[in-house]
């Protein structure tokens, strides 16, 4: 257990006394401000005067005076004549609009706090006269494009006086209607429709939301902003109910959808770890994950994620993807700097669904399906005959090479198939299965003018494609807000989550369960005739028995997590409000690993590892928001204070000796082999502000400043300052663009962010740890020297981009180019061994990332078919600029290195240069070591005829040259097809599973058929596949032999769905029913010889791109239904 120096944590950061004082002062000034308030809402009276005023200018003034939202089409008003003379003094809004538009070919509609301006309908000839007997009653129902009713929609007779509105179910009735009459149906934010009355049959009218309204607002740090005013690089994904695909984790929704965002997976195991990278990697050891902010709560991902067998799982496991409304990705420093020291790797803002005003809504989503191991037979293994042939040939070559005869020491004995009359064992088939799953998600939401509520629940049960890999998950989500008055609002967001994950061995144990199966000899069996297991690592089995491992272990992780926020907001005026909130992120993990006495690791007595972890993260924030317009100038801003403290406790016990395989509890263990625990905490205090100015929505300027103080650093380096500035120009609002169908915005930004993730809470302090044993006497020892000069990593980033819309917004193009430089890289610098330590965390280098991003989206109507498509591509180039002293490579692991001038994903390998064809070609020094004709010829870099680590070179990269996605949606009436493709090009993968066994010709492990059938058997037979020889490691060095092209195109998901319109059963109405079928990972195009080019043994970017036969991503088939009531 570590002993820490509590006095090193400053009072202003480590303890909340200052915070409580600040909060008291804030409450005092808020109360003082309230004395000046009168309970009033936005004014609905309008004052304006002038001559020859452009209509758009008058409308903007009304919008600012009343606080109403204003919707109109720019091309419908831009060419209208100016208003000659206008003089309004405290006039009611409706009368003011009539006066302003009286001489214009425009009409208006008022709905709640929204004004819609549209063209007047052309006057049609007067309808023929009908007698009373000819008149009919028309009844109809108005819904949105998804079948949801639109209560309050306006239904009026064109060129007539009759007018009505739809009720809560979207139903309307027009009495005394005449055949041939035309009904005009409108609703706020939707495209209106004209419907001709033919007879008295019931009408069904579907209105489509105006495209511009779907994406006109984006979420930014501590607020929202109109998309047209955004001056930074923000990727936005709106989750529409009909578009959302079934995913195992919310981050999977980002796959292929936003340029510059790349998602990597640890494996295909359930709840496997994910690494989201935004514009490449910016750090070596301080963490490369973005900051996740859920409903305003910055999530703690360090130490909070599930772990088991060393594999870290998704940090967003506590969220249900069915509850998510939108995801924004802050990619540049200008948008992310408001989060300061945690935003160096970008920010992912997740907004969950809330209740909306109107009738209560109930949604039920049910899905089920199965997963299967994709491309199981891609790795074609040698059968018993080939295996025996190559092994005996390898034994013969070895014996002849060293002149060994039967009875000599070291003689290699040939083998034979003991089960020659039986078929080979399908080792993979013994551990794989079809993994069935079922999901249920339900929500209940609604609201009034004062109160909004949302309640969601999710249940998941899932089996993996490897036996005993199972997940059970429960998600709860509640949101509630209530306006106590016009000036005071309170609310709370709460999310709870429970996961039980039964896991299987991953690569952290030295070999995955998949590798343990496929590396077995083809003729071996899992069970003896008496049903006992064959024992691995002996003459019986060359690897641990995978069936025995899965059957004789009980391994699971229970994780409980709670995210909650409680807030109060006071509107000091219609332009100014203050919001105070308390948030908590609480997690408890119980990690249980039990190997009974029959397990290979149970050592005959059983072994239990019992691990408990509790983390609580408290956050207090106070944010003052301002927004006011002065004629054409709009000023907005935020000022805030934040205080955060995290506490972390762990207890781990290793016990042995259990009376029976059935007793796997700690209390019955005969020996506590090892016990340890830790207690740690850190705190951070922050002040931040942002100011935005927009003139005529044409010229925009935003400036941000944040300062963070963290207890992870010494006092003199504790505070970091992170500024940013961005500018934008809406060129399309200039007069010279009036007669074009082009929208163009130019933007540029610069900012500075920081990084403190991935380092210990006390890295700057000398530490002492217990648990040391000196002659059976317990003791303590220095475990770290600390570094009193430790400081933040800092990143400067410049971004230049544009947003372009063509053909009346049918085609949207977004382009960005950027340059990012990270300095003061945190890295463990080697120290002399005489110190008793191996490394000291220091700031020792710099790194750059530069690249570009392009996104093209369009909506095309091809006859009755609508085609929506989005294509994105991104390129990022990473380079280490400085690192320690000199440019020599720093080896990390068996096959990687860091070197100045190279990127963080570079490999460090021997270079293969074909095979020796004759013994005479082999240098004498290597010949003496057993190298012969048919063995690999390595490049002798230093030309000394000795092949050692000095001959390794830095080459290749696990980082792609470019990557992206292509999403397509085809819609025909109520039928919809979604196809998502993702791709990556130019990255290298290292097939580490080959030199360890499957491509090690002559080894005892199972072998690839390709390497045996094409092996070298004499001069000229091959220059690629070496000879078979036992006990020679020369041919299996970490080398370019196993470095492969990892480029791929993957059909990520295909979904076919049909939406049925509303159905009424007695008095019970189903608004719509959507049924769908979905397939994931249907096909994969790649040159990589392994199963999956996307899985990574280690999510650390220094080691990514290495495959140790992790479980590939499964192929999944899902059917389900979404029902809205």
UniProtKB/TrEMBL annotation:
<comment type="similarity">
    <text>Belongs to the TonB-dependent receptor family.</text>
</comment>
<keyword id="KW-1134">Transmembrane beta strand</keyword>
<keyword id="KW-0472">Membrane</keyword>
<dbReference type="Pfam" id="PF13715">
    <property type="entry name" value="CarbopepD_reg_2"/>
</dbReference>
<dbReference type="Pfam" id="PF07715">
    <property type="entry name" value="Plug"/>
</dbReference>
<feature type="domain" description="TonB-dependent receptor plug">
    <location>
        <begin position="230"/>
        <end position="347"/>
    </location>
</feature>
<dbReference type="InterPro" id="IPR037066">
    <property type="entry name" value="Plug_dom_sf"/>
</dbReference>
<dbReference type="InterPro" id="IPR023997">
    <property type="entry name" value="TonB-dep_OMP_SusC/RagA_CS"/>
</dbReference>
<dbReference type="InterPro" id="IPR012910">
    <property type="entry name" value="Plug_dom"/>
</dbReference>
<keyword id="KW-0998">Cell outer membrane</keyword>
<dbReference type="InterPro" id="IPR039426">
    <property type="entry name" value="TonB-dep_rcpt-like"/>
</dbReference>
<dbReference type="GO" id="GO:0009279">
    <property type="term" value="C:cell outer membrane"/>
</dbReference>
<keyword id="KW-0813">Transport</keyword>
<protein>
    <recommendedName>
        <fullName>TonB-dependent receptor plug domain-containing protein</fullName>
    </recommendedName>
</protein>
<dbReference type="InterPro" id="IPR036942">
    <property type="entry name" value="Beta-barrel_TonB_sf"/>
</dbReference>
<dbReference type="InterPro" id="IPR008969">
    <property type="entry name" value="CarboxyPept-like_regulatory"/>
</dbReference>
<dbReference type="InterPro" id="IPR023996">
    <property type="entry name" value="TonB-dep_OMP_SusC/RagA"/>
</dbReference>
<keyword id="KW-0812">Transmembrane</keyword>
